[in-house]
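Example 9 (inverse folding). The structure is encoded as follows.
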């Protein structure tokens, strides 16, 4: 059950993060690595303070261990490990004022939704919360680059983190301090790889308002967002950027959810015909999630991911998957099972 895809050259993973343009034309696809991006530094640790937020701060680690236990990942050298994103790269999207505001713990506490962080020296906030988020942000960009670099018909990558869809260029919120989705879009648009039409499919339970604010005037980006319309953030201004809004009532169940997804995703793909897709695959849609308030079963999440990959792969559109929200400890098991299912069903094509 081991996957192999060659999506970079002999240079290091860090090379994929730092060179512009993304890849030189003479860069050969040689290295045998899974297009899965992760490193241990993704985990948020705060002497227990992270437990004051329902988010599983070690979700990526838990998924990674489960994938290793199932032999999908055989050793640590098979996955891509991003560098920490630099301030200069963050400023490709973020305002200087916003980045400077993160030097004050009171501002970060509001974004992380952990009030006691107000009293924590910013050095520790940077090291234990923002730095892991910078690694995850870099991982989102690296995963998108990996998907883009793969040969036609094999373009996919998964970041075991990221999906900070509430963060825009000038404000964070909802546990999202960096605008990784906007950074992906701008990276793709400047790649020189002919990525002219980018679709964002946001299936987190919450409306994705951050990147929507950033991309409001960009007609080359199509946003499909399917969310519980009665929960945070209820951002009416950001909603204007959504080309296909699918609003769900609380406690929506599998049958209705999957029918709406299939219908509206098919319609969106036919209408826009993208040449790259960013999939924000939040698992806060699971029944019992304290913030998503939807009633989707683990089987429903697996079928959801299968629908997205199947329809995207049918059109040979490169896809990057980000994990986004998910506030149950069981989310990691569901995500790992979904990735394994995608592999077993042949939706994670290989290139040897």
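The amino acid assigned to each position is listed next.
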């Amino acid at each position: 059950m081991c996957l192999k895809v060659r999506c970079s050259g002999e240079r290091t993973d860090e090379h994929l993060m730092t060179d512009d343009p993304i890849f030189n034309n003479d860069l050969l696809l040689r290295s045998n690595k899974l297009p899965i991006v992760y490193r241990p530094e993704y985990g948020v640790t705060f002497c227990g303070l992270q437990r004051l937020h329902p988010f599983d701060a070690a979700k990526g680690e838990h998924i990674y261990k489960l994938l290793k236990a199932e032999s999908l990942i055989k050793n640590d050298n098979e996955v891509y490990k991003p560098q920490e994103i630099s301030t200069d790269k963050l400023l490709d999207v973020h305002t200087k004022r916003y980045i400077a505001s993160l030097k004050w713990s009171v501002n970060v506490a509001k974004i992380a939704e952990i009030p006691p962080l107000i009293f924590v020296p910013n050095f520790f906030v940077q090291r234990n919360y923002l730095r892991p988020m910078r690694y995850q942000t870099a991982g989102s960009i690296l995963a998108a680059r990996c998907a883009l670099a793969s040969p036609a018909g094999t373009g996919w990558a998964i970041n075991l983190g990221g999906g900070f869809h509430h963060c825009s260029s000038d404000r964070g919120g909802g546990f999202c301090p960096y605008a990784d989705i906007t950074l992906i879009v701008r990276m793709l648009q400047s790649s020189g790889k002919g990525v002219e039409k980018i679709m964002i499919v946001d299936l987190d339970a919450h409306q994705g308002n951050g990147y929507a604010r950033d991309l409001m005037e960009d007609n080359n980006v199509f946003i499909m967002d399917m969310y519980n319309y009665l929960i945070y953030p209820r951002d009416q201004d950001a909603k204007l950027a959504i080309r296909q809004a699918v609003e769900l009532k609380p406690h929506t169940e599998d049958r209705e959810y999957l029918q709406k997804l299939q219908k509206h995703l098919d319609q969106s793909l036919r209408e826009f015909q993208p040449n790259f897709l960013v999939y924000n695959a939040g698992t806060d849609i699971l029944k019992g999630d304290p913030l998503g308030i939807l009633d989707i079963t683990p089987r429903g999440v697996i079928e959801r991911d299968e629908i997205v990959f199947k329809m995207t792969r049918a059109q040979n559109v490169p896809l990057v998957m980000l994990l986004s929200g998910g506030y149950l400890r069981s989310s990691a098991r569901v995500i790992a099972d979904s990735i394994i299912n995608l592999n077993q069903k042949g939706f994670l094509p290989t290139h040897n």
